[in-house]
Amino acid sequence: MQKRCPKCGRWNEVYSNADTFKCAFCFNTFHIRKNRISPKCSRISQIKDKEQSIFSNWYSFKGRARRLEYWVWTSIAIIMVAFGVLTCISTLFVLGQRADEVNLSIDNIFSSFFWFFLFLILGIYIATAVTVRRLHDRGLSGWWYLLNILLGFIPYIGSICAAIFFIIVGLLDSQPFANEYGENPKGVDDGGSGKDMYSEETAESRLLKLNSLRNKGIISESEYIEKRKKIISDI
After folding, report:
1. What is the C-alpha to C-alpha distance for residues 81 and 86, in angstroms, rounded to an integer?
2. For the chain, first and last CA: distance in Å?
3. Are 84 and 117 in contact (CB under 8 A)?
4. I need a surface site. Which of 26, 33, 92, 123 has the fewest CB within 10 A?
5. pLDDT at position 192, please?
6. pTM of the full predicted structure?
C-alpha cells in the first residue's frame, strides 16, 4: 500500500495495517489516516484534469497543445466539416428531387448553405487554433502554419513542406521544458537544464523500493541511510 507524505508530497510504500510511516525522502514520521485518498483515486483525478485541460482551451490561439489534444480537436474539426458538406449535399439533393413541389427561392438556397458554411468556418477555426498551439508546444511561432499553407500552392515543394509540417505537428513530442508560450502541457519540466526528465522518477521508484525493504525489516536503518545517500548522489 502507498501513502503520500504530507510534507514533501511523495508516495511511500507502507504496510496496510500500519498506524505510522516514515517518509523515505524527508525522514519525517506521520500517523496514517484511514480515509486518506488512495493512489488510484489520485490517478483518476489526474486523468480528469488532463481531460479538462484538453477540452477547456479549444478556442484559444495562446498556450500549448500536446499531441493528444491536437488529434482530438483535428478529428472533431474534420467531422464537423464533413457533416456540413453532407448536410448541404443532402439538402440540394432533396431540392432537386422535389423541384416541382418546392419553390427554389432565396430562402431555400440560403437554408441549404447555412449549415455548410457554419460547420466549415467553425471547423477551420478549431483546426487552426489547435495547430497554432501545437506549434507553440514545439517552440515554433504560429505563423509557420500560414507559411506552410502558402508553400502548399507551389508544386513539389508544397508536398515536401506538408510532409515535414505533419511530422512536426502530428508526430513529434512536446518540448520537455517550459518555453515562451507556456509550461509543458504534460507537466514534465527539467527546467531546461538538459537532464534526463525521467531520472527523478527512476530515483523515486528506487527510494520507494528501498523504503519498503526497510519497513519489512530486510535491511537495517544504517543500511537504508547509506543506500539512500547513494541513490540521491546519483541524481
Report:
1. 9
2. 26
3. yes
4. 33
5. 43
6. 0.58
Cell 440560403 sits on residue: 110
Q: Which residue has the cell 536503518?
A: 221
141-145 CB contacts, 8 Å cutoff, 24+ apart: 142/61
Does 122 reside within a domain?
A: yes
Long-range contacts of 101-107 (CB under 8 A, 24+ apart): none
Domain identity same for 81 and 160: yes
What cell does 200 get?
527523478
Range of the domain at 202: 2-36+198-234
The stretches in the chain having pLDDT less than 50 are 35-40, 42, 189-200
Rounded Cα distance, 146 and 140, in Å: 12
Q: Hunting for cell 525522514 — which residue is that? A: 27
Residue count of the chain:
235
